[in-house]
Every structure is written in C-alpha cells, then in structure tokens.
Amino acid sequence: MVLSVSERTFTQEVLESPIPVLVNFEAPWCGLCRIIHPLLLQFQAQCGEEIKLVGVNADQNFKLSTTYRLKSLPTLLLIENGTIRHRLECFRGREDLRLALEDIKARYTSCPKIYKSSKTVDLECRSA
Questions:
Q1: Which of 45, 53, 62, 96 is the most buried (most CB within 10 A)?
Q2: Considering the chain, what percentage of its residues have pLDDT values greater than 90?
Q3: pLDDT number for residue 111
Q4: Beta bridge mates, 122
C-alpha cells in the first residue's frame, strides 16, 4: 500500500525522511496513473525499507503541484534529503517507467555481492 501524503504531511514524510522518497503525483481521473500503479507497488516491494514510496493527489494538493512545477501526470520525483535527485515525467509507457525504476533501484538500494567462485564475482542484484 502506498502512503498518501498531503501538503500538511509532505515536509515530515518526504523532505525530512531519513531515506530517499519516490513521490508519485497522480490524480483519480488519470488513466496512465492507474496503469503504472502495479509497477510502483512492485518497485516498493523490491526496495523494502531503502526507498519510501508515497502518493500525492495533485488535484487536492495544488500548492505542491505548483511548487514542483508539474507539467503532466503522473510525475514521479525521487527526493533525498529534501533535494530532487530524479524527475520522471512524460514517459512513453510501462516499459519506459520500468527501466527508469530499475535504474533508481540500482543506485539507491544496497546490492549484496555474491561470490560464485574464487575467481568470479557476481555483481548482479538479486530479488527474492
């Protein structure tokens, strides 16, 4: 389940968060927002406690929509220590978003190193 954040709780849940936060600006009428929701839930499950996922209803939180200069929905912002690190908007579809989320996951989650033999090192992230 995605934590719903408003203008009232944004500072505490996002800007002051000790871990990076992926903020999903969406709206109930947005078809693409509904289409990408399962991908975001999968991303959240894979990242566990290392990246927090929150949702913001752009229609109900106009100040946040204006502050972050939303041009289209959905817009995803990865915010770390109060600073925007990545901005994802105008993606062309699920595959486009999936690749961007994989990149974020690789950069912001710890990846255990698994040694297959004394000479070969497997540097791939494994998900359970």
A1: 53
A2: 74
A3: 52
A4: 114
As a whole number, mean pLDDT of residues 50-78 equals: 96
> Which residue among 33, 47, 90, 111 is the active-site one?
33
111 is catalytic: no
Report the pLDDT value the prediction gives residue 93, as an integer from 0 to 100: 79
Dist CA 20 CA 83 (whole Å): 10
- Look up residue 17 and give its two tokens: 């968060």
> Is the pLDDT score of 39 beyond 60?
yes
Contact 27, 59 (CB under 8 A): yes
105 and 44 in contact (C-beta within 8 Å)? Answer: no
Q: How many CB atoms lie within 10 A of CB 81?
A: 11
pLDDT at 127 over 70: no
- Locate 105 and state its tokens: 């996951």
47 is catalytic: no
Q: What counts of helices (H) and strands (E) characterise the chain?
A: 4, 7
Contact 7, 66 (CB under 8 A): no
How much is the pTM?
A: 0.83
Catalytic pick among 30, 47, 111, 125: 30
